[in-house]
């Protein structure tokens, strides 16, 4: 019995040592430092990477909430279709990095929200969107991806509810695709509803156009969507958040 317990303790210590040396879902920088991101980890755990997005290092924390229902979006929390009926409000903050030296050979860089929200670069503009990769269901994604919302020309990162574009040019955010409330069909299980923040050059912001249709983002094939649309307009993924929702049985 004593030998068995000793063996189990030694095995546990070895496993912990290996885990600490190889943290899950970390990014290895060119200088060898590891960047651990809870955002990235959650996207991997939910298989949003690679189903919706290619691997990336988040540089913004993306905060969203549904004010009428008093419900936040929190990296995979579960919300009801009733709670998400109305357009959410958003806020995003640059992630700063803190470098920690564990030993002379190991340096870890940890991203964390900036204590303040500095002005965004004047030469950049941002687009926020919502997509469903699980339409009609995760097992049978025959309508995937489904476009639910696109806000473009964002230059201010805090608490803005965008309005439809006006005939005259305006620096304010504009709805490129109106908000389509998530309504997962009954019996199709939980759907992943993914918010993605994209960064682009301000000079080309006016060239971004809505998809030809919501289903498959107009690309006509299963699993086509955000990745294709962002690539078409040269937009870079810089942040993401998501929630789960399912229809009533």
TrEMBL record:
Extent of the signal sequence: 1-19
A Pfam family per the record: PBP
GO biological process: regulation of proteolysis; regulation of Ras protein signal transduction
Transmembrane segments: none
Coiled-coil regions, chain positions: none
Top-level taxonomic group: Eukaryota
The entry's keywords: Signal
InterPro entries noted in UniProt: PEBP, PEBP-like_sf, PEBP_euk
One GO MF term attached to the UniProt entry: phospholipid binding
Alphabetized CDD domains for the sequence: PEBP_euk
Gene3D superfamilies named among the record's database cross-references: PEBP-like
Name recorded for this polypeptide: YbhB/YbcL family Raf kinase inhibitor-like protein
Organism placement in taxonomy: Eukaryota, Fungi, Dikarya, Ascomycota, Pezizomycotina
């Amino acid at each position: 019995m004593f030998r068995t317990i000793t063996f189990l303790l030694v095995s546990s210590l070895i496993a912990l040592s290996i885990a600490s040396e190889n943290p899950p879902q970390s990014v290895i920088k060119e200088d060898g430092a590891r960047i651990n991101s809870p955002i990235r980890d959650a996207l991997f755990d939910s298989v949003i990477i690679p189903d919706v997005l290619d691997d990336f290092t988040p540089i913004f924390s993306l905060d969203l909430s549904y004010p009428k229902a008093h419900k936040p979006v929190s990296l995979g929390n579960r919300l009801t279709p009733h709670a998400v009926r109305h357009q959410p409000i958003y806020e995003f903050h640059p992630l700063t990095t803190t470098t920690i030296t564990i030993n002379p050979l190991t340096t870890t860089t940890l991203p964390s929200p900036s204590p303040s929200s500095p002005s965004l670069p004047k030469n950049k503009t941002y687009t926020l969107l919502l997509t469903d990769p699980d339409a009609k269901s995760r097992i049978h994604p025959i309508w995937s991806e489904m476009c639910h919302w696109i806000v473009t020309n964002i230059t201010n990162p805090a608490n803005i509810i965008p309005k439809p574009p006006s005939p005259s040019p305006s620096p304010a955010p504009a709805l490129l695709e109106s908000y389509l409330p998530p309504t997962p069909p009954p019996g199709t299980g939980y759907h992943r509803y993914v918010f993605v923040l994209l960064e682009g050059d301000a000079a080309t912001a006016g060239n971004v156009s809505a998809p030809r249709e919501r289903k498959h983002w107009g690309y006509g094939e299963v699993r086509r969507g955000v990745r294709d649309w962002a690539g078409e307009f040269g937009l870079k993924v810089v942040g993401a958040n998501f929630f789960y929702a399912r229809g009533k049985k």
